[in-house]
């Protein structure tokens, strides 16, 4: 023992070392997975917050640019904005019209079931006509 010069603390700690059991190894792996998962969750939350800030900034920039363009358009040609608004209104009306017309005027083979004679209070038949959008007359 005289040739052995290792300190007593090293000899006792080396002897105290043992192999890790499968259960302990599984626990360590689970802790490591949980730590990695928690880190990734924090990274994801930070990235989502940054993306939301970028979206808001872009939306603000776009709104600002549209406002500036509208102001420039009004200054240079006030009628152009009115025409633009009318054009947008017309597009919306045309988009909406076919679906609305389907509910008002269902397609049927024979329209005679939807037409009827209108009588006056004197039992005289009234012949009514409607103007179409094209300017022609549509008999009822």
UniProtKB/TrEMBL annotation:
Where are stretches of biased composition, namely Acidic residues?
124-133
Any single Gene Ontology cellular-component annotation: cytosol
Q: Which GO terms describe its molecular function?
A: AP-1 adaptor complex binding; kinesin binding
Indicate, by first and last residue, each region the UniProt record lists as having compositional bias (Polar residues): 109-123
Q: What Pfam families does this protein map onto?
A: AP1AR
Give me the ranges of the annotated region Disordered: 49-71, 100-140
Which GO terms of type biological process are on file?
A: negative regulation of cell motility; negative regulation of substrate adhesion-dependent cell spreading; regulation of Arp2/3 complex-mediated actin nucleation; vesicle targeting, trans-Golgi to endosome
Cross-referenced InterPro entries: AP1AR
Q: Which residue ranges have biased composition labelled Basic and acidic residues?
A: 49-60
Question: Any idea what this protein is called?
Answer: Uncharacterized protein
Record organism: Scleropages formosus (Asian bonytongue)
